[in-house]
Design brief:
Layout (H helix, E strand, L loop, with lengths): L8 H37 L5 H4 L2 H13 L3 H32 L1 H16 L6 H8 L3 H25 L3 H9 L4 H12 L1 H26 L4 H10 L3 H32 L2
Length: 269
């Protein structure tokens, strides 16, 4: 007789197949990245593409190395990451707070609903000049842009998540005499954690977009500034290097939120 906690041969085989599949996917992802990078470099060196316009991996690397040697790389990275983090955090907190207020008062929700729809439909880039006039050509305008891009999406996602909480659980607490605050803290917010995590994942990218747009307009430092400056002086290697760094930062922020998601799910069992 097999011990109660031992796995069957079929279960072990299934786990091994899952492990092999994960390794295959990881290897395929890395191989695709390497293949595209090599193809880009070869195409630029052999003249298949115009290296002046699209640069090449080696030139982009050299541009990043030059920034590092001049002590400017961490300055630009730090500016973009810091502005994104502030905009991401503020936009998420403001969005959750407004969503709570809308859930709390159906009357307020009905009043503000058309305005939220209009704000969501407005291209946020159009707000850039307004923020510049209000706040000046400084980091505050960039953070405001990052918040503006992410906050409306957070409000809509969280409010929908609050409204979709199991009504039977809410009725059960009301039967026991729970007030609205207790329902919010004991049922609605805990049940909306998956939606909150999903909103965080969306907001990481949106906040980065807002930050880069703000840096396009007013910044004197940051990856967005490097992209604009590189385009103005026709230094496409600097542009491509900045875009690659921006991609790396975006992926790291996304996986940071994913790590937070796993930690939250483990704590919730």
């Amino acid at each position: 007789m097999r011990p109660p906690n031992s796995m069957s041969d079929e279960h072990r085989a299934f786990l091994r197949s899952l492990a092999r599949r994960r390794k295959l996917i990881t290897a395929a992802r890395f191989g695709l990245l390497v293949a595209l990078t090599v193809l880009w470099e070869v195409a630029a060196r052999l003249g298949w593409i115009n290296a002046f316009i699209v640069s090449s991996p080696s030139r982009a690397w050299q541009a990043a190395a030059n920034l590092f040697n001049r002590g400017e790389l961490w300055l630009h990275l730090g500016m973009t990451v810091g502005e994104t983090a502030i905009g991401f955090t503020a936009g998420t907190l403001i969005g959750i707070l407004v969503a709570v207020l809308l859930w709390w008062s159906d009357t307020l929700s009905e009043i503000l609903d058309p305005y939220i729809v209009v704000l969501n439909a407005i291209p946020k880039v159009a707000l850039g000049p307004i923020f510049i006039v209000w706040m000046g050509t400084n980091v505050n305008a960039i953070i405001a842009m990052a918040i503006a891009v992410s906050v409306i999406v957070t409000i809509m996602m969280m409010y929908v998540g609050f409204k979709e909480v199991d009504p039977d659980r809410v009725k059960l607490l009301r039967t026991f005499g729970a007030n609205r605050w207790q329902i919010l803290t004991k049922v609605v917010l805990p049940a909306s954690v998956p939606v909150m995590i999903a909103a965080l994942k969306v907001n990481v990218g949106l906040s980065m977009v807002g930050t880069i747009v703000g840096e396009f307009l007013v910044s004197r430092a940051g990856l967005g500034f490097l992209i604009v400056y590189g385009g103005q002086v026709f230094n496409m290697s600097l542009v491509m290097s900045s875009v690659i760094l921006l991609s790396i930062v975006s992926v790291m922020l996304y996986y940071g939120v994913s790590a937070l998601e796993r930690a939250v799910l483990r704590s919730r069992g």
